[in-house]
Each structure stands twice: as structure tokens, then as C-alpha cells.
Amino acid sequence: MAEAAIMPDLLGAALRRIAADVDAGFDAMLPMPQDARARLVEAMRYATIGGGKRLRPLLLTATAELYGVGRELAVRASLAIEAIHVYSLIHDDLPCMDDDAMRHGKPTVHLAFDEATAVLAGDALHAFAFEVLSDPATIGDPFTRAELVFALGTASGMNGMAGGQMMDIVAEGQTFDLQTVTRLQQLKTGALLGAAVEMGAILGRLSPEGRGHLRGYARDIGLAFQIADDLLDHEGDEAVAGKALRKDDAQGKQTFVSLLGPERARAQAEMLVEQAINHLGQHGEEADLLRALARYILERDH
Amino acid sequence: MAEAAIMPDLLGAALRRIAADVDAGFDAMLPMPQDARARLVEAMRYATIGGGKRLRPLLLTATAELYGVGRELAVRASLAIEAIHVYSLIHDDLPCMDDDAMRHGKPTVHLAFDEATAVLAGDALHAFAFEVLSDPATIGDPFTRAELVFALGTASGMNGMAGGQMMDIVAEGQTFDLQTVTRLQQLKTGALLGAAVEMGAILGRLSPEGRGHLRGYARDIGLAFQIADDLLDHEGDEAVAGKALRKDDAQGKQTFVSLLGPERARAQAEMLVEQAINHLGQHGEEADLLRALARYILERDH
Fold first, then answer.
1. Average of per-residue pLDDT values in chain B
2. Confidence band (pLDDT; 50, 70, 90) for A7?
3. Conformation bin of residue A145: beta by default, left when phi > 0, alpha when psi is -120 to 50
4. Residue A32: closest CA among chain B residues belongs to which residue?
5. Which residue from A259, A85, A59, A231 is spatially nearest to A161, judged by alpha carbons?
6. CA distance A268 to chain B (A)
7. Å from B12 to nearest chain A CA?
8. Hey, what domains does chain A have and what are their CATH numbers?
């Protein structure tokens, strides 16, 4: 991998570890049924196993680790948020949405299978997320279960990810200002990145009042992440990204890059990363992984 | 309404009451946002308000009432299961799935809006269901919240509704036997009808062991419901049904009617309805609504 050379060892090892754990988790939780549902589960496995940066699972497990949460429990909860992320990619890639052919360097689900299977695989992964979180076998304490479901549900619905995606579709025909684009991105990607950190804090039994600095961290890296995405779309390498780029420009869509220009956009993202790291001031070296992750968000090439 | 004449007063009044309560509930819970998400929420409201028989909400609230659960709480929980049902209809109607033009006597969401909005509105209603159930403002007790989410999540995912829909798609090209069609229907519609009764029992704080008779009732009416649906598709009136019929025959799909013939299918459904009512033997007249509902499932004309 190209990023191995520039990535600090701590982060590189953590990314490899969470990727392996998430792959193993989906493999165990999505066994192939011996009936006509096989095609559905095959598509769910195709989409969830062996691809993606696993940023949300890493955010969740790294936050949970700050508070001594067991690895197995944190990984299990991180399957739920990754399932939501993956379902949104499957539906986003559909012909009626972004009509994308490649994702994580392989054909998108509706091309590898068919559109109906892609819609259903997304829906089934969506339900899977809430099944995992509400399963007494995952988490014994019912309060924690209910709190996790609420955090993930609100972040993914009309007041979160799905709402942001609608704004993104409407944006194609309109001229949005910086404030509206910021709001759009906070919903579309920021809400779920924020939920990853929030869920780690919930597992760590941190009170809502005690989560302020983590929410600040999540908000800042969420916005930096999107600016980095816009920069990548503008100047990245399609072969490294594993998906089509230069789509924002082609669609005439307002982005941080189109509104600020690439240089100011990069400076803004750098400022946000520093600000995110400052939010972690109360933590010692146990938060080094979250700090490295904040820097990686801007440095990544895919 | 055509059914008003043949419907016992108890059931007719209950159907009108739950329809009004569910409409009012969605109206209150889905306020129009003052930003570009307006189109999404408009589509969610279009699909949820003012249509459908509200069978699942009625099952949930009627079961909860057996155990003295407050009406407001039961209606709130029933919005969640109805949201799941409605999202599944929106996605089912998509061109890549059943490609239906009419639903509840009006154009389907992807025709009234567009396909991308239909996908997103379905996804947002899916998340809405779990938001409602896990919201401390809905239900104080976290154990009840978590149990409701688990019941609805398992009933709607790969081991429930979504799995059944996949089997249904695969069924078009294959010859299924009666056992496989039964399994398919138990997943596709039976699981969610069962969850409605289960969620009512959960709200009533009935132990899992005490729910046996209710599960038997739900299983039998679930199967009777699907046989009635097949009969309706085979011999119903499109104008009354508010949707296209005769589709199973056209697609050469195996149904209870094609496998058993209409007469044996009807006899089987009648037997199931009687069996469902027998499961309620331990209850007095407080279960009359559930009994009337079981009979209605076979007598309905849409």
C-alpha cells in the first residue's frame, strides 16, 4: 500500500488491525444461508468484507479504548456503524443516485449482482446494524444498547446522513453558499463520523456532559475529512482512489474547493486538524492514535 | 369504504381510530425542515400519511391494550413498525424491483418524486423506526427500548422481511414447493406481522415465555394474510385494491393459489384463522378485537 511509507507505525498498525477485525466480524456475523436468501447474503458479504478504510470502526474502537472498553465489544459495535456506512455506499452507487461503477477497486454491488439485490443488500445491512446493537449477546447492559441505537439512528436518518444525501442531490441544480455546503457535509458525512466517536464514549460509559471534547474532535475531523475528500476529487489519482474522481467539477457541484479554492481549502482543513487535536488536550499518550488519525484524514491519498 | 358494511363495528371503529392516530403521529414526528432536506421529508410524509390499512399498528396496539399499556405509548411504537412497512413498500415499488405505478390509490413515490428520492425516503424511514424506538422520550425503560429494537430489527433484516423479499425475487425464475413458498412468506410478511404482536407484548412487559400463544396467533394470521393476498391478486378488483393485480400469474410465480388452487387455498386460510382465534382462548372479550382482526384478514377486499 502506498500510504504505508508515510503513515506513522501506530496508525498503520491500527488500520491493519481494525481492517482484519472488521473483516473477521462480518465473516462470522454473515454466514451463508442454505436457501434462496444466499444471493442476498453473498451481496452483503461482497460489500462488507475486504474493502474500505474502516475509519468509523477505528474511530469507535480508538475512543472506546481511551476508557478501557474491551476490544471484542468495541469491534462488535463498530460492525454496526460500518454496516450503515456500507449500506449508504451501496445505495449511493445505484444508477438512480451517483451511478458509480467502481468502489474499493471492484465493481459496485448493482453491477456485480443486480439493482434489486443492491437495494435489498443495503436495506438488510441497515437492519443488521440495529440488530447487532440491540442484541443482548453483544452488550449486556440494556441502557447502553438503547443509547447506541439512538446515537446511530439519529446520525443516519433524516437529521443525519440521509438528510445530507438529499441536500447533496438538490445541490446539483443550485448555488449553495459556504454555510449551506458546511451544513450539508456535517449531515452527510460528519454525523456518522461523530456517531463513531459518540458510540465509543457510550461504550466507555462516559456521561453526555463528559463527551464535549470528543464531540468537538469529531466535528472538526468530520469537516476536515470532507474538505480532504473534495481536494482528492479535484486533484487525486483514480487508480489509487479505486473509484471515479473529478465528478464534482463535472456536475458543477459546489464544494469547499470550488468555493474556497484548493489552497484556502487545504489551509482550512489543516486548521481543523490542529483544532481537533487540541480538543484531546486532557488525554495523554493514550489518545495518540486519535491524534494520528486526525492527521491521516488530510494526508490520505484515497 | 366498501368494507364498512361487512365489518363488525368493533373492528371498523378500531381501524378508523388507528388510521387517524398513525396519520397524526407521522404528521407530528415528520415536521418539514427549512432547508434542502424538505424534498426528503415531503416524500416521507407522502408515503406515510393518509394511506394503508395500518394492520401492523392495529396488531401492536390491540396486543398492548390486552396488558393495559397506555394508548399514546403503543401508538408511538406502532409508528416505528409502520415506518418499516412503508419503507419496504417504497423500495419494493422501485423500477428495479416490482416497478409499480400505484400504491394506496396514488402514484408510487418514485413517480410522484423521483427514484433517488424514493431510495432515500425509504432509507430515512428505516432509520426513523429505530430512532423512535430508542428515544428516551418515547419509552422511559431502556430494557423495553432495547427489546423493541431487537424485535423489529431481526424481523426486518436478512432473517426476516429483506430475506423474504430476496427469496421472492429469486422465486420468479424457479419452481418452489409449498414448503419453500411458506418459508418465503413467513419471512416476507409474517415476520413483521409477528413483530407487531411481539412489540405489543414487550410493551406489556410480558415475559418471552408468556408470549407463546400470541406468537401462535401471529404466525397463523401471518400465513392467512398471505394466502388472502394471493387470492386477492388472483381474483380481486384493481380499483378497490388501489394497486395493480394479476401480477403473480403474469410472472409465473408460485403462490399458495397456484400450488393449492383457489378453493383449497381459501379453506387453508379459513383453518388458519380459526386456529389463530383458538390461540387466544385464555383471554376474554378484551381480545375480541384481535379475533375480529383475524377474521378481517381473510374477508378484506384490498
1. 93
2. low
3. alpha
4. B158
5. A85
6. 25
7. 33
8. 7-299 (1.10.600.10)
